[in-house]
């Protein structure tokens, strides 16, 4: 079996640190020698499939986590940066701050709005939920059937698989949306 031992070594160290278990305890739970685990964490050795499975059970992780390098990605979007999407029928802009990786469904937006026409959103896919925090100004937000007036620091959560609305009630109203 060909393995990227350096990836496995880093994964073992990371996952053992996450659990807070000692080298001896993980080795005991996996049924391997402490020296074997020490060698693997140092990037030496040629572990069998059985050894790797035992370590995964001891660390309570899926097998794939040992073989996938951890990606630590920091992203900073400064005020005024980012791609803006502007509504046609309301003075409403959304800046995508974070999109979910494939297989997940969550996007985070910064909202920049002005009083005027309501921003009416059609229903999103079934089961969608939207979270809004008003960070500046005031807005009327929520389901078309029962919108709520929110001020700075107020939060609302509602089922977004129904028609919903966002209307700025003051100039330069801002917020964040997570859906």
| Low-pLDDT segments | none
Report helical residue fraction. Answer: 25-40%
Order of helices and strands: HHHHHEEEEEEEEEE
Integer tally of domains: 2
Write down the CATH class of the largest domain. Answer: Mainly Beta
Between the first and last Cα atoms, what is the distance in angstroms? Answer: 43 Å
Number of helical stretches of at least 4 residues: 5
CATH homologous superfamily placement of the largest domain: Jelly Rolls
Structural class: alpha+beta
Based on Cα principal axes, name the global outline.
Answer: elongated
DSSP strand tally: 10
Strand order of the largest sheet: 1-2-3-10-5-8
**What do the pLDDT scores average to?**
84
**Architecture (CATH level 2) name of the largest domain:** Sandwich
Protein name: DNA-binding protein
GO cellular component, one term: cytosol
Pfam families: Cupin_2 (PF07883), HTH_3 (PF01381)
Domain HTH cro/C1-type: 12-66
Summarize this structure as a short list of keywords or feature phrases.
179 residues, alpha+beta, 434 Repressor (Amino-terminal Domain), Jelly Rolls, 2 domains, six-stranded antiparallel beta sheet, four-stranded antiparallel beta sheet, 5 helices, 26% helix
What does this molecule look like?
The chain has 5 helices and 10 strands. By secondary structure, the protein is of the alpha+beta class. The chain has 2 domains: 5-67, Orthogonal Bundle (434 Repressor (Amino-terminal Domain)); 84-178, Jelly Rolls (Sandwich). The protein has a 6-stranded antiparallel β-sheet with strand order 1-2-3-10-5-8, with no helix packed on it. The radius of gyration is 24 Å and the shape is elongated. The model has no long low-confidence stretch (mean pLDDT 84).
């Amino acid at each position: 079996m060909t393995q990227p031992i350096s990836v496995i070594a880093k994964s073992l160290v990371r996952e053992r640190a996450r659990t807070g278990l000692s080298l001896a305890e993980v080795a005991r739970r996996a049924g391997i020698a402490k020296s074997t685990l020490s060698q693997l964490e140092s990037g030496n050795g040629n572990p069998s499939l059985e050894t790797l499975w035992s370590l995964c059970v001891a660390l309570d992780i899926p097998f794939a986590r040992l073989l996938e390098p951890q990606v630590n990605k920091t992203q900073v979007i400064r005020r005024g940066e980012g791609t803006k999407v502007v509504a046609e029928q309301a003075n409403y802009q959304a800046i995508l701050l974070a999109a979910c990786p494939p297989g997940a469904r969550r996007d985070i937006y910064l909202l920049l709005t002005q009083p005027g026409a309501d921003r009416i959103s059609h229903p999103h896919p079934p089961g969608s939920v939207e979270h809004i925090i008003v960070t500046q100004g005031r807005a009327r937000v929520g389901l078309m059937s029962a919108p709520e007036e929110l001020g700075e620091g107020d939060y609302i959560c509602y089922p977004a698989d129904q028609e919903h609305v966002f209307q700025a009630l003051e100039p330069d109203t801002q917020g964040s949306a997570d859906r």
